[in-house]
Amino acid sequence: MLDTRQIGLHAYYAGTSWLRKHYREKLEQERRAPMCVLFYHRVADKHPNPWTISSGEFERQIHWLIENMDIVSLEEVQRRMATGQNDRTTATVTFDDGYAENLDTAIPLLVQLGVPTTYFVTLDFMYGKKPFPHDVQRGVELPTNTIEQLLWMAGQGVEIGAHTRSHCDVGAITDPNELVDEVLTATEELSQLIGRPVRYFAFPYGKPENMNQAAVDLLRQAGLKGVCSAYGAYNFAGSDPFHIQRIHGDPDFIRFKNWMTIDPRKVSLGIDFRFAESTLLSDSQLSDSRS
Ligand SMILES: [Zn+2]
Fold first, then answer.
1. How far is the CA of 30 from the centre of ligand 1 (A)?
2. Residue 205 φ/ψ region, left for φ over 0, alpha for ψ in the -120 to 50 degree band, beta for the rest
3. Is the separation of the CB atoms in 249 and 38 below 8 Å?
4. Cα 9 to ligand 1 centroid, rounded to whole Å
5. How far is the CA of 164 from the centre of ligand 1 (A)?
6. What is the Å distance from ligand 1's center to 249 Cα?
7. Ligand 1 center to residue 170 CA distance, Å?
8. Distance (Å) from CA 11 to ligand 1 centroid
9. Staple partner for 233: which of 109, 156, 165, 245, CB 3.0–4.6 Å?
């Protein structure tokens, strides 16, 4: 049964689909086509929660993307952003956190279909360490990835990215040492674990308030290729390729399609985004705050 809101969404989608089609074609002709980078967390059929999509729905979304858009890697998104022009609307698949069940069907499907995938892992919550606090709160300790799983994925061409050590709110960090540890040291440790360079970083939570310029500067100076946010925005050629804006892979198919068919109301989101200034305290401020 559809609730009223669902009926509203369907009506909105149906009523505006001709407009979107026309709008997308116009953007493509003007070489300003949007690049959609999706983030998923967990693809599984047990213990559904707001960060889980069923394997059937996930497969449906991936096939829809293949039929309707160009599927590209993060690197290709950045290349197009840097050239200043893009004439094809694209989709890119990423995952955050590192849930073990993604290996049951989702990742093998993406590998089989040749869909470029970037997979962001939180170091402290790998298998055998500890469950995510947001899962413990809900009373279900969901399994997280093993190192063997990460190695298998990397071997299949999945790009492994960093997602801090403790899944912290980077925007709330005030201690410079903690910032370096969460964004840089944890990224280096992940790189050592998988025996290959880690080139991308995704901010946990990924809203504007969960990120800051100091972290971005650290990662850029350390030679990473880019950082990902998660507040819901398209990417356009001409903006800074180091920052990739992402869209939630919504388990609700109509919401997913609403974003992916290019909602004119959402096109201006994130266009003028600026990272918040640093929240870091100096050594003397830190010792004051500790005393
Ligand atoms: Zn996360």
1. 35
2. left
3. yes
4. 27
5. 9
6. 13
7. 11
8. 32
9. 245
> Is 216 strand, coil or helix?
helix
CATH number of 4-290: 3.20.20.370
One-letter amino acid for residue 197 of the chain: P
Task: Enter the pTM of the model.
Answer: 0.93
How many A from CA of 22 to the centre of ligand 1?
35
Q: 111 C-alpha to center of ligand 1: Å?
A: 22
Ligand 1 centroid – CA 83 distance (Å): 30
Longest Cα pair distance anywhere in the chain, in angstroms?
62
Spell out the per-residue pLDDT of the chain, length 291, in tens: 567 877 887 887 777 888 888 999 999 999 999 999 999 999 999 999 889 999 999 999 999 999 999 999 999 999 999 999 999 999 999 999 999 999 999 999 999 999 999 999 999 998 777 888 888 888 888 999 999 999 999 999 999 999 999 999 999 999 999 999 999 999 999 999 999 999 999 999 999 999 999 999 999 999 999 999 999 999 999 999 999 999 999 999 999 999 999 988 898 888 889 998 877 777 777 777 665
- In our burial notation (b when 16+ CB lie closer than 10 A, e otherwise), range 69-88 reads bbbbbbbbbbebbeeeebee
